[in-house]
Specification:
This protein is α/β, with parallel strands linked by helices and about 220 residues long. It is built from 9 helices and 8 strands. The protein binds D-xylitol-5-phosphate and zinc ion. D-xylitol-5-phosphate binds next to strand 2, strand 8 and helix 8.
């Protein structure tokens, strides 16, 4: 079963409670929260306080995507605030830091993910970490903003991770993030994606509930 994770970066921030209710009623499985430091990516995103408040407002699991130059500096703050899944970018990690990130996840009980920008080649150390990681996020837009167009070259990384997972009988999930719509959902799932993050295609719709159910329908294979 594919999971739908609406990204609150595109939600109307003055209306966040109504947006959360609508995605819950629409059948969302997770909530994707983008944390952006203005250095790794050119925007500023949600602080741990937001995650803390959000975790009291919803029962949906919170998936924090750390677009930070120094993700380990803030990982625990987000975990303590209630993030059940946290991903950090391979571009700013090394083999040692990647292992350290997984160790923190195991100790504090959140799922650990590794994210990559659309044109990043997976570094060799990542494959060792994927034995213990919970998910991978081969991004399909440049990090920072909702509402961008899906970059088709992302299928190369998705395919690579799908093949690696199959060949080595691993269990990590593949999360698609960026430009996911009702038009490409099915192709993504057919390529091995398990989690669809969706910002604009959910929150820019007049019917948030309906947008989620149509995404789910399109993603069925
Ligand atoms: C981009 C973020 C995404 C974004 C997705 O930096 O990581 O999570 O909010 O939004 P859409 O689906 O509109 O591309
Ligand atoms: Zn994201």
């Amino acid at each position: 079963m594919v999971l739908i994770a609406p990204s609150v970066l595109s939600a109307n921030q003055m209306n966040i409670r109504e947006c959360i209710r609508a995605i819950e009623e629409g059948g969302a499985d997770l909530i994707h929260v983008d944390a952006i430091d203005g250095v790794f990516a050119p925007n500023i995103g949600f602080a741990p306080k937001f995650v803390d408040d959000l975790s009291r407002e919803t029962r949906l699991e919170i998936d924090v995507h750390l677009m930070f130059y120094n993700p380990l500096r803030y990982t625990l703050a987000y975990a303590k605030a209630g993030a059940r899944m946290i991903s950090a970018h391979t571009e700013v990690l090394t083999d040692v830091l990647g292992r350290h990130f997984i160790a923190i996840a195991k100790e504090f009980g959140f799922k650990a993910g590794f994210a990559l920008k659309p044109f990043t080649e997976p570094p060799p150390w990542l494959f060792d970490c994927l034995i213990d990681a919970d998910y991978i996020v081969p991004m399909s837009v440049e990090p920072g903003f909702s509402g961008q167009k899906f970059i088709p070259q992302t299928f190369k990384n998705i395919q690579l991770f799908q093949e690696h997972r199959k060949k080595n009988r691993l269990n990590f999930k593949i999360e698609a993030d960026g430009g996911v719509t009702q038009d490409n959902a099915r192709m993504l799932v057919e390529s091995g994606v398990d989690i669809l993050v969706a910002g604009a295609s959910v929150f820019n719709s007049d019917d948030i509930k309906g947008a989620i159910s149509s995404l789910k329908r399109c993603a069925q294979i």
